[in-house]
Design a protein that fits this description.
The protein has 413 residues and is of the alpha/beta class. The protein has two domains: 5-150 and 353-395, 3-Layer(aba) Sandwich (Rossmann fold); 155-348 and 399-409, Dihydrodipicolinate Reductase, domain 2. The chain contains 14 helices and 19 strands. The strands form four sheets. Strands 10-11-12-7-15-16-18-19 form an eight-stranded mixed β-sheet. The longest helix has 19 residues, at 351-369. Bound molecules: NADPH dihydro-nicotinamide-adenine-dinucleotide phosphate. NADPH dihydro-nicotinamide-adenine-dinucleotide phosphate (NDP) is lined by residues 9-14, 35-37, 40, 65-68, 88-91, 93, 111-112, 150-154, 192-193, 196, 304-305, 352, 356.
């Protein structure tokens, strides 16, 4: 049994991770939250106490930490006796947190691919630029490192694995569709860190088509999908982490990612991008001050976690998988519907943070009990899907399936 969790970051997703760890501290043990701005850790701790979320009386502490400092991170892991680190800080800290985990021999989880400040949308597959270079190191140290265990990437990878395991002999395409039909009432806001959100869309859109990489521009390829509960939704083909692992790890010739955007988002994005305000490269003002436009835009936009109290509506995220089973053409949609208000009532967060924050806690529980403690680096599709999806069914993110036999809940117990 591995016990005691150190959460890195104290943003929107970390709030959900901390609440869910508290709800399951009988399995997970002590909970520590460490972030750059220590006061944000304390705010999360206060909200856990307000909701009486700790299942058992236990340790719940906050710490100030610069997670780019490997030695300081390793020292905190040792001081807190943490055996599982859930990294939901910015993707810029992934490699340093992973180094600290390898140094101390503890399990590592994250929810997004590592990024360097001055580079965007690097050569595909993205995982090969940083994470996969450290596979041997993890295996040698016996370190379990689970990559991209949010919702997308994360749960959608498990849906793809489930399709491979149970529903197909041969898969021809996986289309991952992410619709947020919620409304936050602000003129403009992003649902997670604006800097990371925009960086996903300002470079090349890579998709895996006919078993090779295809390059497009953002908002070049549009498609309307009719999804359960949220109905017909406008989406655009987008570059995304899971395309970069599923394309390499599953024998599937077409893997694409589609994200829903309203016309208003597209307009605002196009204006900001066209005039250079989404650039990650520094510019110098007439006064000689060096500014990174994207960081300035982030500073002006609402903090995504501040959207939670007024957010209404639902999300629908899933995998539309096509292929053959027993010689017949088959199609299944494996998906989840989440509700912004329900998330707020339970953990004080909006639905996007909720869908991203619950899965790493389920994964941490599977590491704690040994089922996913594989002692090497793994993407989610490398691991058995059912124990994970089974846990999520009882943790607020139930899985449903829609196929020729109808639309129904999937129960793996
Ligand atoms: P936020 O920006 O709200 O939170 C990030 C946190 O990381 C902040 O508390 C920030 O501190 C902290 N941080 C940044 N740099 C450092 C550092 N050097 N040392 C210590 N702490 C640091 O982001 P979100 O909570 O919205 O997202 C967190 C992660 O989850 C991101 O990687 C994001 O890409 C990912 N994500 C994944 C999803 C999925 O489904 N897979 C969906 C949504 C998000 P400070 O408060 O000082 O800025």
């Amino acid at each position: 049994m591995k016990k005691n969790v150190l959460i890195i970051g104290a943003g929107g997703v970390a709030q959900v991770v901390a609440h869910k760890c508290a709800q399951h501290n009988d399995v997970l043990g002590d909970i520590h939250i460490a972030s750059r701005t220590a006061v944000k850790c304390q705010q999360i701790i206060d909200s856990i106490h307000e909701k009486n979320a700790l299942k058992n009386p236990g340790v719940l502490e906050g710490h100030g930490l610069d997670a780019t400092d490997i030695d300081a991170t390793a020292a905190l892991i040792e001081k807190t006796g943490s055996q599982i680190v859930i990294n939901v800080g910015s993707p810029f800290v992934n490699m340093s947190v992973m180094s600290a985990c390898i140094k101390t021999g503890v399990a590592y989880l994250d929810t997004a691919i590592h990024e360097e400040q001055d580079k965007i949308c690097e050569t595909p597959p993205w995982y090969a630029n940083y994470e996969w270079k450290r596979r041997e190191e993890c295996e040698k140290a016996g370190v379990t490192a689970i990559l991209g265990i949010g919702f997308d990437p994360g749960v959608v990878n498990a849906y793809a694995k489930l399709a491979v395991e149970d529903y197909f002999d041969k898969i021809s395409s996986i289309d991952i569709i992410d619709i947020n039909a919620g409304s936050h009432g602000k003129y403009f806001a992003t649902n997670f860190d604006p800097e990371i959100n925009f960086r996903e869309f300002t470079g090349t859109v890579y998709s895996w088509q006919d078993s090779k990489w295809q390059s497009n521009k953002m908002f070049e390829i549009k498609k309307i999908w009719d999804m359960p509960v949220v109905g017909e939704s406008q989406t655009f083909m987008t570059g995304h982490d899971e395309v970069h692992s599923l394309s390499q790890n599953l024998d599937v010739p077409n893997v694409r990612f589609w994200m829903g955007f309203g016309d208003h988002y597209v307009n605002v994005f196009t204006v900001l991008n066209s005039i250079g305000l989404l650039s990650e490269q520094p510019v110098t003002t007439a006064e000689g001050q060096e500014v990174i436009p994207l960081k300035l835009v982030k500073a002006c936009l609402p903090d995504p976690s501040s959207l939670a109290p007024d957010y209404t509506g639902k999300t629908c995220i899933g995998d539309l998988v096509k292929g053959t089973k027993d010689g017949k053409e088959t199609e299944v949609l494996i998906y989840n519907v989440a509700d912004h208000k329900d998330a707020y009532n339970e953990v004080g967060s909006q639905g996007i943070s909720y869908t991203a924050g619950v899965p790493p806690v389920a994964a941490a529980m599977l590491i704690a009990t040994g089922e996913w403690d594989v002692k090497k680096m793994a993407n989610v599709e490398d691991l058995p899907a059912k124990p994970f999806l089974n846990l999520l069914n009882g943790m607020g993110l139930p899985t449903r399936i829609k196929d020729a036999n109808g639309d129904r809940a999937l129960d793996f117990s």
